[in-house]
Amino acid sequence: TRIEAPTIALALKIASEALSDKILRDVDSHVREDVKDQRDLMGPKTLMEIEEAQRAIVDAVKQSMEG
């Protein structure tokens, strides 16, 4: 399952720069910059929206591990 950059950006919206860098360190540099740009340009989001994006990523990782 592919996780789109906007979902990753939203999931990392409230993460520290250090944590974001750690998570994105193994991602293609183009994707990394896209995620960072989208996160920085994104307006305010609710905690519920951020948690939904985080759950979507966890679910995608679980699905990829199962199949």
Structure description:
By secondary structure, this protein is mainly α. Helices cover 72% and strands 0% of the residues. The model has no long low-confidence stretch (mean pLDDT 93).
Total number of strands: 0
Distance between the termini: 10 Å
Helix-and-strand structural type: mainly alpha
* Amount of helix: over 70%
Sheet having the most strands? none
Shape: globular
Q: Which regions have little confidence, pLDDT < 50, spanning 5+ residues?
A: none
Radius of gyration: 12 Å
Average residue pLDDT = 93
| Percentage of β-strand residues | under 5%
Task: Briefly summarize what is shown.
The protein is mainly α and 67 residues long. Helix content is 72%, strand content 0%.
What is the fold's blueprint, element by element?
Layout: H1 5-11, H2 17-24, H3 29-41, H4 47-66
Helix pairs in contact: 1-3, 1-4
Task: Give the tags.
67 residues, mainly alpha, globular
